Amino acid sequence: MSLALLQMRCSHGPRNPITKGSMFMSRDTPWPSWVYREGTEPDYRFSFANERTFLAWIRTSFALLAAGAPLDIVNLSLPHSLQRLLGILLVGASMIIAVTSWLRWARAEIAIRRGEPLPGFRFGIGLSALTVVSALIITVAL
What we know:
Layout: H1 3-9, H2 33-36, H3 44-68, H4 80-114, H5 124-141
């Protein structure tokens, strides 16, 4: 076994496998620091629940991307311009959800660490509206 691999497996090795001089932060400095320097360390179950919510939104983003990307390639019974518009809507929503979910995770983590109420679900109405518009496009085209 190589020395580097052995050091990674041993917590008492001479260096952390993730060093401060590398492109990664050290294990002692969580990232992003602007989130973790707020408040006090919460019960880990709340942080894990917040992460699971973030991952659920990322899965939703991937699903919209997977639905929207092939719409320009697959020949459906929709007019090409409508099919393209639907694809742009879905891929655009995917990008917005990916960014917004990360920002929502950060805001929720800060609120948890400060012991404050969790932030509201602001972008839910936009996502609902996008779903309705996409469904209407498909319904009218069929």
